[in-house]
Predict the 3D structure of the following.
Amino acid sequence: MTITQLTYALAVNTHRHFGKAAESCHVTQPTLSMQVQKLEDELGIILFDRNKHPVEPTEAGKHLLQQAESILSEVQAMNGMVEELKGSLKGEFRLAIIPTLAPSILHRLVPKLQKFLPEVDFRIQEMQTEQIITALRGREIDGAILATPLDEKDLQEYPVFYEPFMAYIPEGHRLEKESFILHSELDSRDMLLLNEGHCFRNSVLKLCKHPEEHPASMKKIEIESGNFDTLVRLSRLGYGMTLLPYLTAADLSKEQQKFLKPIDNPIPTREISVVCLQSHYKKRMAKVLVQALAACVPDRLKEEKHSVVQPI
């Protein structure tokens, strides 16, 4: 039994097709098929039902392939650990970022990653907080950038900066004439919110009166959205106010920034951290990621001087 054979078998399980599996492994189909056959002969168990299209694992094959995934994961962990012990910052880093941060941070972060970790191949994707926690525990990703604290004992959090909330108040709104917004003036019935599942939505609702009631509506239309750009557009049309994170607000046009208002002290803030599994072997890489992320934001955001709203 070899690592190569296990890798080929898992590729077949993923693609459910020997030809596509061979292509993904950059070998010919006869080569891959022969190695999978050798593995089956050694085990004395048929892993795949080749009479079905697409190919399916047998019942026994399902159990063995699951174990093969664990074996390969441990091998990858050992290889990564060796590189860490050598002081090497090479290889791959699978990074997740929450959707409410990705649009405002990625264009700032990517150039810094290339500078701080030039020999690391990053695989970056957006994930919501609950998905990130699951993916970290399943070792599907190596680290994440998200709002904390999470209070999860098996996760290591490295706080990087503190992002204040800003109020976006359109023309004609009841708070249009105010120079700043009081906490008592935040009302969920007048608030455009992100969809459920976004941690920023939860944070906003914790600040509002009537959090159990429906979000802002006009003419019986209840509105929630998955991104801040849509919320700002709807707000300008008169469908309510909204709250934005500082970096998202900073990226608005000068015309749109005229509608931004600060929130009274204690200013609600979200803590942004790099998070990885306590037992993960790429911690050194994660710590350099912390430095790269810190280089993306103004120094004034790196001091904890506001009221952090717990995301979940």
